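wait is this the right file?? whatever heres the structure
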């Protein structure tokens, strides 16, 4: 089977990567959930993606509001999922000082992924922290985003 026919998925919670080589997951009307941790949905990617080891993943709706935060988000940001849900991701995480514009806006407007974007994050303790941001637009009609954050060296 050619690689273009393979659907790649990543779990925003545990970062488990999976493929749907047989196409069965795409046939049902039920949301595809994580087979490893049981998280309620997976994010489909154009190709396989290997996040940083310490990455925290945040899933957003079409308006850029947080709908789920993976388990690594608290370790990286100090924010619990309930503190983030429903808020715009940039505001909720205190993201600022992006190199070359807001990658979330670019991903939403143009439907393109943004990888390795440098930014600052306002930690829950009130300190600024240097991070790397990867942003992926949703491949479905929902129009959401997957945002992966990882610490970057000073």
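ok assuming it is, sequence goes like this
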């Amino acid at each position: 089977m050619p690689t273009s026919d393979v659907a790649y998925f990543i779990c925003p919670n545990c970062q488990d990567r999976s493929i749907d080589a047989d196409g069965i997951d795409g046939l049902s009307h039920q949301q595809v959930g994580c087979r490893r941790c049981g998280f309620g949905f997976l994010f489909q990617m154009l190709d396989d993606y290997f996040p940083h080891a310490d990455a925290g993943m945040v899933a957003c709706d079409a308006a850029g509001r947080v709908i789920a935060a993976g388990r690594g988000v608290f370790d990286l940001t100090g924010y619990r999922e309930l503190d983030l849900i429903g808020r715009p991701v940039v505001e909720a995480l205190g993201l600022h000082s992006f190199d070359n514009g807001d990658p979330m806006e670019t991903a939403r407007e143009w439907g393109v992924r943004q990888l390795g974007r440098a930014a600052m994050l306002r930690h829950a303790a009130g300190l600024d922290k240097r991070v790397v941001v990867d942003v992926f637009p949703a491949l479905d009609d929902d129009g959401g985003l997957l945002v992966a954050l990882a610490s970057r060296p000073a």
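The chain has a mean pLDDT of 85. so i think its the right one actually
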